Amino acid sequence: MRTTGTGMIAVALMAAAAVLIGADQGPTDGPQYTKDGKLTRPPNYREWIFLSSGLGMTYGPLASPGDPRFDNVFVNRAAYRGFLETGRWPDQTVLVLEVRSSQSKGSINRGGHFQDEVAGVEVHVKDEKRFPRKWAFFGFREGEQASTAIPATAGCYSCHEQNGAVDTTFVQFYPTLIGVAKAKGGMK
Ligand code: HEC
Predict the structure, then answer these.
(1) What angle do CA 154, 155, 158 make, to 5 degrees?
(2) Could you tell me how far CA 147 lies from the centroid of its own chain?
(3) Which residues line ligand 1 (CB under 6 A)?
(4) Cα–Cα distance between 106 and 158 in angstroms, integer?
(5) Which comes out higher in pLDDT, residue 14 or 40?
(6) Which residues have C-beta within 8 Å of that of residue 135, sequence separation ≥ 6?
(7) 32, 45 contact by CB (below 8 A)
(8) Distance from first CA to last CA of the chain, Å, rounded?
(9) Which end of the chain is more exposed for a tag (fewer CB within 10 A), N or C?
């Protein structure tokens, strides 16, 4: 009798923990799609985990002359937690690259740059069942709320596949994750 009682309590506690973890992740943490299969622009990515800000990096499609741009990278919380455990991205990972212009003159500033307007939002999604390469890229113009996947022939895929340190992502530029990936064997 005693054993059964303890067992039941343990089961009840595990169920409660599962509910709590589920509630914490929220229903909209992973990728969301419209009925016609477009990815919806992640509405709350600014409340996700911040990975890094690249400043004036010049590898990519949104590079521009003039004041350097910031690349702010965010990831959904559930994926971040998975990465901390395994050093790899779990299914349903959503990475957001928010490109912002910068300024150097304003208020009391005397040197350096601060962030200004959004110049573009790009998204990298891991959805193993939906995409043949498991990952897909999306771009959102200002005000655009849904977007179809960028075709697999685009330069995004080849550069990320060839140069990304973990799977097709640039973890080598995300300082809080490099150590985790190395320790857990996630680096390519
Ligand atoms: C020549 C190489 C190159 C090409 C082409 C490229 N990227 Fe990237 N991408 C990078 C690098 C380097 C980073 C690292 C982070 C940064 O910019 O701060 C990155 C980061 C990203 C991220 C953040 C998540 C991640 O995967 O690490 C997204 C989203 C992204 N790129 C989308 C795109 C899209 C969409 C395209 C195509 C329109 C594209 N990239 C083309 C090199 C490239």
Answers:
(1) 110
(2) 16
(3) 52, 54, 57, 59-61, 71, 73, 95, 97, 122-124, 137, 139, 150, 154-156, 159-160, 169-170, 173
(4) 39
(5) 40
(6) 124, 125, 126, 160, 167, 168
(7) no
(8) 52
(9) N
Two tokens at 146? Answer: 């849904």
CA distance 42 to 147: 11
What is the per-residue pLDDT for 23? 43
User: What's the pLDDT band for 66 if we cut at 50, 70, 90?
Assistant: confident
Lookup result for tokens 């004041």 = 67
Evaluate whether 67 touches 101 at the Cβ level (below 8 Å). Answer: yes
Q: What is the pLDDT of residues 144-164, one digit of tens each?
A: 999 999 999 999 999 999 999
How far CA 22 is from CA of 16, 33, 61, 78, in Å, comes to: 10, 20, 37, 10
**Atom of ligand 1 lying closest to residue 155 CA:** 5
Closest listed residue to residue 130, CA positions, set 149, 147, 144, 146 = 149
Would you say how long the chain is, in residues? 188
**Which residue type sits at 151?**
P
Residue 92: CB atoms within 10 A of its CB come to 17
